[in-house]
Every structure is written in structure tokens, then in C-alpha cells.
Specification:
Distance between the termini: 36 Å
Number of strands: 14
Structural class: alpha/beta
Helix content: 25-40%
Length: about 350
């Protein structure tokens, strides 16, 4: 019986170890040699093409970080632009490996779609924008208003819930893209538009005047945005989760793309672990020990990504707010790499 027990224990260890290093998606990505990421069709700050036709943004950089972890090369990825209606189907069907597309993490999405949220790469909230000429100063004064909204999104659901909670009627106008929503708003087809507040801030800039349009103060929801993967492949889930955590930990540790090479000489244990100068942290993920170093070197820490995408170094110039590190009053908190 004792020998049988030892044999079963050994089998369990072997099974757990195998699961930790292999899975359908993990193996397929490894064999293909690149990561396929679903992103927005064109959402500045999150996923958009620059003047050179190259993809940029927080969600694209999240994809690049995964590629750097998996292959040691942040260019080993392909983006698949997806509408809100197509994004979950594309992930479920295997058309993409990971959805890095400003997607809200919710209980329903984690439990009914065969998908699972990995973490948060941007904390947002939903709002409503109106024209200044409307003299509306609160969303609570929009009874009977026509609101343009993206269909099949938590944005649509939150809008309906918010008005229902106040026992107010409104008229939704469902449009497939943010560009369509902006055009409808400018033409007077809707009294207001609802999007995440980060998107409203950009829309106000794109519409040509930050003075002509007002983002109303009420938050209609909490919007923790982040990557999603298919359920059932813990190895791939872990690579995506810890790629995000590596960027957050790097910022907290003061590591960035410019100083990371010098930091390789740092004797501090937590620095040695994250940069792979001591072995072990890569094997647990099924990747090279330098996985986090390559993310930091080739993509940057979370603060660098935020700054160039939506922060001070971008046209949007958004404050960090909730997306500051927890040490600076925000919600961003990297899990320990140890």
C-alpha cells in the first residue's frame, strides 16, 4: 500500500508538471511561432495604426509583451482587428489566441462563454458625453434622451441598467463602430454618446473641440479592461497573466527599457528573479528565464506603455488616475514574481 501510495503521488506530480508546461493553445502558439491577438478595429490609445501603418496602443503592447515572453521577440505577433460582435466568437473558435481588446472582465463572461479574464491592463469607467449647448450638466437630466451606443457590449447593458435604476426612459441608437457613433452625434442623430471615459476623452479631441462637448460627471459603471483567453489551458493562461504582471512589477521596481541592462548587475534577489539572472522563474512558465527581461527591454514597463499610449506622451494626455501604481494611490498592483 505504501508503494502504491508513492506511485500515485509520483503520477500526480508528473501530471501536474505536464499541465504546467503544455496545453492546446500553448503548444499551438509555440509551433506557429507567433501570437495571434484580437484587438479593436481602430481605437486610439488602445489599438490603432500610426502614420507608418504600424500597430500601437496599450492592448497591442500587451500582445507584444506576450510575444516577448513566449519567443524572446516582441515582434512575433499578429493582430486581428475585431468588432465588438466578433471578438468573443473569434477567441472561442481559435481564430485568435488571446483577446487583448479593451474588454471588460465580468462574471458572465468568465462563466458562460468558455473564456476567462487574465488580469486588468486599464481601469476605466463608462460615461456620457453631450454638447455644451444642450446645457445638460448631469446624466440624471437625460430622461427621454437619444443615446448612441455600441451593440453587444457591457456598455449597452450598463446604459440600460443605469437608466432603469433611476426609473428613466431613454432611446438607444445601436451603431457598430465608434466612428459611426461620432458621426451620428455630430449630425444630431443622438443627444449623447456613451463609451468608456477614456474613449470619450479621445472622441472629444477628434471632434475638434474640448470646449464644445461635455463629459458628464456620473460614472455609469466600473470597467476593468484586460486580456481574455479560452478556458482549459492553464499554461497559456499563465504566460498571458504573468506577462502583464511583469510590466507592473518592473515599474514598481524602477526597471524600464532604458536601465534594464544595467540592472542585470543588481544583487537584490527580487531584481535577479524578475530579470532571470538566477534560474527558475522561466521554467515554471515553460519559457526562458529571461522572459521578463525581454518584455521590459523590448516593450517597457507598464508606466512606459501607458505614457506613450494614452498618457503625457500621447495626444490624449490622460492622468494615470486609477491606473497609477498602488504605491501612488492607484489600483495597479503587480503580483510578486517569486
Amino acid at each position: 500500500m505504501k508503494l502504491l501510495g508513492l506511485a500515485l503521488s509520483a503520477l500526480l506530480v508528473l501530471t501536474v508538471g505536464t499541465r504546467a508546461h503544455a496545453g492546446t493553445t500553448f503548444d499551438a502558439v509555440k509551433k506557429r511561432g507567433l501570437v495571434q491577438c484580437g484587438v479593436s478595429t481602430n481605437l486610439p490609445g488602445f489599438a490603432f495604426t500610426d502614420s507608418k501603418g504600424e500597430w500601437q496602443g496599450i492592448d497591442v503592447d500587451t500582445c507584444r509583451a506576450i510575444a516577448a515572453a513566449m519567443f524572446g521577440d516582441a515582434t512575433k505577433f499578429r493582430v486581428v482587428p475585431l468588432t465588438t460582435q466578433a471578438r468573443f466568437t473569434a477567441l472561442q473558435s481559435g481564430e485568435i489566441d488571446v483577446l487583448t481588446r479593451n474588454t471588460t472582465q465580468t462574471l458572465t463572461r468568465d462563466t458562460t462563454l468558455g473564456l476567462i479574464g487574465v488580469g486588468v491592463n486599464y481601469y476605466d469607467s463608462q460615461g456620457i458625453m453631450v454638447t455644451k449647448d444642450s446645457n445638460v450638466t448631469s446624466a440624471k437630466k437625460l430622461a427621454g434622451a437619444t443615446i448612441c451606443v455600441l451593440p453587444g457590449t457591457t456598455t449597452e447593458l450598463n446604459l440600460a441598467d443605469w437608466f432603469r435604476g433611476l426609473k428613466m426612459e431613454f432611446k438607444p441608437v445601436l451603431l457598430d463602430t465608434v466612428d459611426e457613433i461620432k458621426r451620428a452625434f455630430m449630425s444630431g442623430r443622438c443627444d449623447g454618446i456613451t463609451l468608456d471615459k477614456s474613449q470619450l476623452a479621445l472622441a472629444r479631441i477628434n471632434l475638434g473641440s474640448t470646449e464644445k462637448y461635455v463629459i458628464l460627471p456620473e460614472p455609469l459603471s466600473k470597467e476593468p479592461l484586460g486580456p481574455m483567453v479560452r478556458q482549459g489551458d492553464e499554461a497559456w493562461f499563465n504566460v498571458v497573466r504573468w506577462s502583464l504582471n511583469a510590466m507592473l512589477e518592473a515599474e514598481e521596481y524602477g526597471l524600464n527599457s532604458k536601465n534594464v541592462d544595467e540592472a542585470l548587475k543588481n544583487p537584490a534577489p527580487h531584481i535577479q528573479r524578475i530579470l532571470g539572472t538566477v534560474p527558475g522563474m522561466g521554467k515554471a512558465l515553460g519559457v526562458d528565464d529571461k522572459w521578463a527581461y525581454r518584455i521590459i527591454k523590448q516593450v517597457g514597463n507598464y508606466g512606459e506603455v501607458f505614457d506613450r499610449s494614452v498618457g503625457a506622451g500621447s495626444p490624449m494626455k490622460l492622468d494615470r488616475g486609477l491606473n497609477a501604481l498602488y504605491t501612488k494611490g492607484g489600483l495597479m498592483y503587480g503580483w510578486p514574481i517569486r
